[in-house]
Amino acid sequence: EQQEKWVPRAVNMEIIGTYAQTELGHGTFLRGLETTATYDPNTEEFVLNSPTLTAYKWWPGGLAHTANHCVVVAQLHSKGVNHGVHPFIVQIRDEDTHMPLPGVKVGEIGPKLSFSTANNGFLGFDNFRVPRDSMLMKNAQVLKDGTYVKSRLSKLTYGTMVFIRVMIVTDMAYYLSVGATIAIRYSAVRHQSKPKENEPEPQILDYVTQQHKLFIALASSHAFRVTGQWLWTTFVRVNKALTSGNADTLPELHAVACCLKAVTTRDAASMVEACRMSCGGHGYMTSSYLPILYGITTAACTYEGENTVLLLQTARSLVKAWQKGSKGKPLSPTEAYLMDKSPVPKWENTLDGIIAGFRRVSAGKVQDCVSKIDKLVKMGTSYEDAWNQTSVRLVAASEAHSRAVILATFRAEVSRAAAALSPPLARVLHQLVHLYTVYWALERVGDLLLYTSIAERDVQELQQQYEDLLQKIRPNTVGLVDAFDLRDEILNSTLGAYDGRVYERLMEEALKSPLNAEPVNQSFHKYLKPFMQGKL
Ligand SMILES: CCCCCCCCCC/C=C\CCCCCCCC(=O)SCCNC(=O)CCNC(=O)[C@H](O)C(C)(C)COP(=O)(O)OP(=O)(O)OC[C@H]1O[C@@H](n2cnc3c(N)ncnc32)[C@H](O)[C@@H]1OP(=O)(O)O
Ligand SMILES: Cc1cc2nc3c(=O)[nH]c(=O)nc-3n(C[C@H](O)[C@H](O)[C@H](O)COP(=O)(O)OP(=O)(O)OC[C@H]3O[C@@H](n4cnc5c(N)ncnc54)[C@H](O)[C@@H]3O)c2cc1C
């Protein structure tokens, strides 16, 4: 009945909430959170408290001035026992006056790299009392007398984060479609330099280096959209099983959500930055929207689980899978390839050959990590220290695993969908799959040389395949970004508008600046003139 109490009010916006988990002192290590919720059986209330400065919640989006409620993650104490972190839904502001309630300290954390509209806030409690039903009791409960009833699965507390991580993969597909649209449209309008003296300045989109910078962003948008859809379908399936009490598939979902969130956010941020830089000085204008877009995408590398920490979570799953598989036990579908003990096959410069190659790389890296950890432990190093000393390799193994998942999913889903598409459209999408796959083979050629039978001539051929694909995709590039069908109001970009009037739009935006309100800015009279007259 808690959902009946809170959900309708949230849906009709009586309740504006945020998720208050991170504190000044802890973001990653949730078991280290300091906010406490101590149950008082005499009043059937929880007393929320921030015992230290580092216990203050810090970062929750909308917390500073928008939210009037929040989900607070706190250490639950009852009958003198700390039962660990649990979620509580807490009203923090008066619903009429919006004033902070007594015992609640809330405010803005200050300027950030981007996301300036998110009013991220801080929140501290001074022995703030909330009724017992503030504890979200879907998984664990506290009875009226203070008896704690533990969840059938403690990890369910972390479920919200899996959901957001799953959503973020699709978010990255969207952000890349925006960046690619802006940069490719601008590259079609911008003419620069004279490689051929007797010909006009060409579109910068005709420079192969420009195509190399931009087409991967276009292809990655499709790869992440397809992978995000697969991940969402997986999430729905796992959640359905959880509802019926079966948690067997949750570990696999957690592991794959972690590495996909980490890799897609890192790729999106670096590719949006490449889109910005490919637009020269105008890409550095706020009015291009590319700097803001970079700020938004790079934030995703940190929020909802810092990328390194998440890749290490996946590595934890891969190492456990290797150990499990080595004992002959079955592995989850996404990790089953780790147990492929067949001899390394002759390298094939095909999509299937490259995908198989990335699986070999991932399995080889995981095996190397397990061997290094085992060797260190046998030499007397603690497992924790051995893990830390191997962690750079563990992150690389996770990344290789994630890339193998994306490559395989992108190829499989486009192949499956192609049958229902017109031949020209199917051909273009296959070209994007091919470009994405060959791009990453070339980016990770060192790993392929270490763990597969790829030879120098294969690499040379892949490079040529890649350059041929750039040439094949070029004629459809503008059509492909137009197909994202992003309205000018959404693009919010002087460089990416559909009409291509970039110079007029740049000037229109410049003239809106208050600094252009008068021909001589007041700074001349206040500072320059006195300085020039030696009076400053
Ligand atoms: C219908 C409604 C529509 C609503 C629309 C929503 C649209 C959303 C769009 C989203 C996109 C953009 C908007 C986002 C804006 C910004 C939001 C940002 C919000 C935040 O940042 S919230 C704070 C996020 N914080 C974190 O992610 C913290 C990260 N840290 C951790 O997760 C944990 O501390 C840890 C790193 C996992 C380590 O914890 P711990 O030491 O306890 O765990 P162990 O490593 O020892 O592992 C224990 C055990 O538990 C398993 N496990 C860990 N986490 C999970 C999990 N999440 N799920 C399942 N299982 C988990 C782990 O595998 C271990 O298992 P094992 O022992 O190996 O069996
Ligand atoms: C734009 C934005 C919006 C946010 N919105 C919210 C929100 O709405 N609600 C909310 O609760 N939080 C929110 N956050 C906070 C976010 O979830 C945390 O910043 C994030 O979880 C990382 O925690 P941290 O900042 O404490 O960094 P730390 O955990 O201190 O990490 C710092 C560094 O230490 C490394 N590190 C930490 N632990 C390990 C480890 N075990 N092994 C190896 N390296 C490690 C990390 O890799 C990282 O390099 C937001 C953050 C941002 C940037």
Structural description of this entry:
The chain is α+β, with helices and mostly antiparallel strands and 536 residues long. It is built from 15 helices and 11 strands. It has helices at 2-11, 159-189, 208-243, 250-277, 290-299, 307-325, 351-378, 383-418, 423-443, 445-451, 456-473, 477-482, 488-491, 502-511, 522-532; strands at 19-20, 36-40, 45-49, 57-58, 69-78, 81-91, 104-108, 121-125, 128-131, 141-142, 148-149. Strands 1, 2, 3, 5, 6 and 9 form a 6-stranded mixed beta sheet that branches. A 3-stranded antiparallel beta sheet has the order 4-8-7, with no helix packed on it. Strands 10-11 form a two-stranded antiparallel sheet. A hairpin with a 5-residue loop joins strand 10 (141-142) and strand 11 (148-149). It is globular and about 90 Å long. It starts with a helix and ends with a helix. The mean pLDDT is 96. It binds ligand LPWUO67N and flavin-adenine dinucleotide. Residues 19, 21-22, 28-31, 61, 155, 158, 161-162, 164, 167-168, 171, 250-251, 254, 303-305, 309, 313, 316 line the site of ligand LPWUO67N.
Task: State the main characteristics.
51% helix; 536 residues; alpha+beta; binds flavin-adenine dinucleotide; binds ligand LPWUO67N; three-stranded antiparallel beta sheet; 15 helices
